[in-house]
């Protein structure tokens, strides 16, 4: 697996890309970072802009994007998700697979309900524009290339669960805006690598993401 951070901006960091990660699920022998199946962790309001920028530079190909995991329902984590779903279906000809955890799945399905069909020649086509898989908390499911994923509960002001990805390469933990890096004890004890977005602004009552005063691991 390989991971690329697309941005580290919080909800009010308008000049920075919202915190998101593009993960390649394949093993690499030739150094080519674009041919593998991709999983996108969170899709904030300007993340699709960043993907477009990478695509124009031939550093990303939309046809390789298969999964999007959503950690929670804040706009800086779902703001361009609908645009991405529309683009993948109508321009790329591909249904993207939305992954989420039980804490978030119900609200996310309501948010995406207007995508459960589309109009063509003034007729309603009752076809979902995406597929949805609920990722269990602390129990793994297998996706491409033998990668095992599970949702790990994280502490946040809204329902939130991070993501664990494991393969023969090792394990990646992605907290997703957690004030404490995972409640799950396994992630505390045996991390391979943890990616966490946090602010250096030490004012927990005024900033949006985890600040270093609250960063617990």
Number of strands: 13
What is the percent of helical residues? 10-25%
| Main beta sheet strand tally, sense and closure | 6 strands, mixed
Extract low-pLDDT stretches. 211-217
Order of strands across the biggest sheet?
1-2-3-4-5-8
Q: Radius of gyration in whole Å, from Cα?
A: 17 Å
Q: Tell me, what's the shape?
A: globular
Structural class: alpha/beta
Quickly count the helices. 5
The CA-CA distance between the termini, in Å, is 23 Å
State mean pLDDT (0 to 100 scale): 80
Name the beta content range.
25-35%
Order of helices and strands: EEEHEHHEHEEEEEEEHE
Explained architecture:
This protein is 19% helix and 27% strand. It has five helices and 13 strands. The protein starts with a strand and ends in a 23-residue tail after the last strand. 37% of the residues are buried.
Strand and helix map with partners:
Elements: E1 2-7, E2 20-24, E3 38-41, H1 47-56, E4 65-70, H2 75-78, H3 81-92, E5 96-100, H4 102-111, E6 118-120, E7 123-125, E8 130-134, E9 141-142, E10 148-153, E11 161-167, E12 170-174, H5 185-189, E13 193-194
Parallel strand pairs: 3-4, 4-5, 5-8, 12-13
Antiparallel strand pairs: 1-2, 2-3, 6-7, 9-10, 10-11, 11-12
How would you describe this structure in keywords?
217 residues, alpha/beta, 6-stranded mixed β-sheet, globular, disordered C terminus
Brief account:
By secondary structure, this protein is an alpha/beta fold. It is built from five helices and 13 strands.
């Amino acid at each position: 697996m390989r991971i690329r951070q697309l941005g580290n901006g919080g909800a009010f960091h308008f000049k920075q890309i919202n915190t998101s990660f593009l993960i390649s699920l394949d093993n690499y022998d030739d150094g080519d970072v674009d041919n593998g199946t991709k999983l996108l962790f969170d899709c904030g309001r300007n993340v699709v802009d960043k993907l477009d920028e990478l695509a124009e530079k031939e550093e990303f190909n939309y046809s390789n994007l298969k999964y999007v995991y959503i950690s929670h329902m804040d706009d800086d984590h779902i703001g361009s998700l609908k645009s991405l779903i529309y683009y993948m279906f109508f321009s790329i000809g591909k249904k993207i697979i939305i992954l989420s955890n039980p804490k978030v799945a119900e609200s996310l399905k309501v948010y995406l309900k207007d995508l459960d069909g589309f109009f063509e020649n003034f007729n309603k086509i009752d076809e979902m524009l995406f597929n949805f898989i609920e990722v269990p908390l602390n129990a793994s499911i297998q996706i491409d290339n033998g990668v095992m994923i599970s949702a790990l509960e994280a502490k946040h002001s809204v329902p939130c669960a991070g993501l664990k990805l494991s393969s023969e390469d090792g394990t990646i933990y992605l907290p997703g805006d957690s004030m404490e890096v995972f409640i799950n004890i396994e992630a505390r004890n045996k991390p391979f690598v943890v990616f966490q977005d946090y602010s250096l602004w030490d004012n927990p009552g005024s900033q949006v993401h985890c600040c270093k005063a609250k960063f617990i691991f």
